[in-house]
Amino acid sequence: MADTGLPSGWELKVYMAQNHTPAARNDGAGQSEGKIRCSHLLVKHRDSRRPSSWREADITRSKEEAIQILEGYQQRIDSGESLGDIAVSESDCSSARKKGDLGFFGPGEMQKEFEDAAFALSPGQVSGIVETASGVHLIQRVQ
């Protein structure tokens, strides 16, 4: 391919994530009335709606195994490790590259089980295990 002088697709994605995605900003830009900001750690299982991730092309673990894995992460968080630091390498969500940060969202924008758990949290609080069609999550409310 000829060099057009434009950034490659990957460079563009990185640039956009760092400079234009509200989830990548820490200054509250993009926040609207009634919206909250959360990070999460997702472990998928074979019955998840899309049993693949950036970490594994074909996820074959059972839901029970996914819950056990998440319980181990929960213990690490309880011992002082941050959810975001664990998410970077362990989350099955593409938000892992942003320490699990999902940005701001309001009512009706997430799966009901996720939304119910997230809106019940106080800023800084981490949920227990939350099951959705995507898999099992730990959610931390940021704002």
From TrEMBL:
Source domain of life = Eukaryota
According to the record, the segments passing through the membrane are: none
Report the InterPro entries cross-referenced here: PPIase_dom_sf (IPR046357), PPIase_Pin1 (IPR051370), PPIase_PpiC (IPR000297)
Q: Where is the PpiC domain?
A: 33-143
The GO terms this record gives for MF are: peptidyl-prolyl cis-trans isomerase activity
| Record-listed E.C. numbers | 5.2.1.8
Q: Does the keyword Membrane apply?
A: no
Keyword field: Isomerase, Rotamase
Q: Which reaction does it catalyse?
A: [protein]-peptidylproline (omega=180) = [protein]-peptidylproline (omega=0)
Does the keyword field hold Isomerase? Answer: yes
- A Pfam family annotated for this chain is Rotamase
Of the GO CC terms on this record, one is:
cytosol
Which enzyme type, at the first EC level? Answer: isomerase
Biological process, per Gene Ontology = positive regulation of transcription initiation by RNA polymerase II
Q: What is this protein called?
A: Peptidyl-prolyl cis-trans isomerase
- The organism named in the record is Penicillium frequentans
Q: Kindly list the organism's lineage.
A: Eukaryota, Fungi, Dikarya, Ascomycota, Pezizomycotina
